[in-house]
Amino acid sequence: MSRLGRVEMGKAMHGGNMGDVRRMGDLVERPAGEWTPAVHRLLRHLAGRGIDDIPVPLASDGERETVTFVDGEVPAYPMPRWVWAEEALESSARLLRRVHDASVDADRTGPWRSPPREPAEVICHHDFAPYNLVFRDGVAVGAIDWDFAAPGPRLWDLAYLAYRIAPLTTEDVGDGIGGPERLARLETLLAAYGTHASTDAVLSVTVDRLLALADFSERVAADRGMPQLLEHAALYRRDAAAIQANVAG
Predict the structure, then answer these.
(1) CATH code assigned to 81-248
(2) What's phi and psi for 75, nearest 5 deg?
(3) What is the per-residue pLDDT for 8?
(4) Which residues sit opposite 124 in a β-bridge?
């Protein structure tokens, strides 16, 4: 199933935080910004390192960019049951590891939309979650929506993926996965990625990641008059507190 099966050709693609994004055949037109040249360099670099199922940048005039459409299924909330299968969990982690490894020697020249973070081990996607991953037959094969990519530590991306797919949220996402099972899934995710980081270390980074997201959401809500983002910020802070309590306990 194509993720665009629900929209008409040439009309807006809905869902997530993509903004005014339109598909025209095998092409996708999206908003661009000062970060777009850096993102295009990154995408070309990753493609040259064998990361195939990602958008290929074709053009940008500074206001709009044109990239190729990546065919596959990109799930949205409420997530389908197959997103919580072990195959989706492990393949997402393996894909993130491939992307990170491929980005190690990529050009770090900005500007980037997200602030670079130290240690800048890789170039992070910054929103590596099921709703930005392309799946085929339940296996994660690619990633889209690279606008917020920027140099950073591996765990910055890995923690957010864990938050979304373990999942580590207090929100009812309809997954039916209990607390102890979520921690077991976190361990499976880390093993599939191939990190020696402990679960507590990842949970600690997840707290920092969520607090940064809360700050960002509150700034955007104020700057752009989008009060609905305050609900997101409140959830991130609530989840951060719950995770911190679990680590401390």
Answers:
(1) 3.90.1200.10
(2) -75, 160
(3) 34
(4) 150
